[in-house]
Design goal:
The chain is mainly β and 261 residues long. Helices cover 9% and strands 40% of the residues.
């Protein structure tokens, strides 16, 4: 079952002193999520069809999918360059260079995402810590005999041929559940907890469980609210309590839970 992948997109036009790294999450194919517009700007869950989507395929590969009629997009790796064809996914690897409208973005793949969140700037120091942590995790996985599939999103080699597939990413097999927020409350420790009511088990394909992740929906944009990531901590019937990253409660009516985790 495919899972969201944590990546960084490095804007090579910016200086090292600028916030040139953007921390992002690519979602399994078929879901509205991470995208690039015709100017090469990063978009998150755009309401209109995107020029270029960044997805996770059914076999857990990060892919770039250029829409029909969209601006040209190229992928470069180790001296090779491929122009992304319309409606055919190009498999991406760590350190690939994506060029769209003269904007160059270097791809850094960090592995399975711990949470689904909108793109956010990342300092060079924080990126270094992420890279070191990812390297330690991969080394530990190898030591205990982790499967190659689990490590595949973060590996691949800089000179591997650029693969172009014939089919776009398949829709995700696992569902998501939209729950109605009853209230938000801040604990003594300063953590904002979200209390919500979810559909009855069996009324939707998915069932919310402790440990599932998701986000609070911004009522204005219908996209993830800033710092609105949540982790389900308690489930009792249709009632759930989720821990958020919010500093203070906000006005919102829905929380979206990814039940694939």
């Amino acid at each position: 079952m495919p899972t969201p992948v944590e990546i960084c997109l490095e804007d090579l036009a910016l200086s090292p002193e600028d916030e040139r790294f953007l921390r992002c999450v690519a979602l399994p194919g078929g879901e509205p999520g991470l995208a690039l517009d015709s100017e090469g700007s990063v978009r998150w869950m755009p309401p209109e069809p995107a020029d270029c989507g960044l997805w996770v395929s059914e076999d857990d590969r990060l892919v770039l999918l250029r829409a029909e009629g969209a601006a040209p997009v190229t992928v470069s790796r180790g001296g090779r360059t491929v122009e992304a064809p319309e409606a055919r996914p190009v498999v991406l690897r760590d350190q690939d260079l994506i060029t769209i409208n003269d904007r160059q973005l270097r791809l850094h793949v960090h592995g399975v995402a711990g949470a689904v969140h909108p793109p956010e700037p990342l300092t060079a120091g924080a990126l270094g810590r992420m890279v070191r942590a990812a390297g330690m995790a991969l080394a530990l996985g190898a030591a205990v005999g982790a499967s190659s599939a689990s490590a595949a999103p973060a590996t691949g080699g800089p000179t591997a041929p650029i693969e172009v597939r014939t089919r776009p990413p398949a829709p995700p097999a696992a569902p998501q559940v939209v729950c109605a927020i009853a209230r938000m409350a801040k604990t003594k420790e300063g953590v904002v907890m979200v209390h919500a009511t979810c559909p009855k088990p069996g009324s939707t394909p998915g069932t919310v469980r402790v440990g599932d992740r998701g986000y609070i929906v911004d009522p204005k944009s219908n996209a993830p609210a800033k710092y609105g990531n949540v982790v389900v901590k308690k489930v009792k019937g249709v009632k759930v309590v989720a821990e958020s990253r919010l500093k203070q409660p906000i006005k919102a009516t829905q929380v979206r839970i990814y039940t694939r985790y």
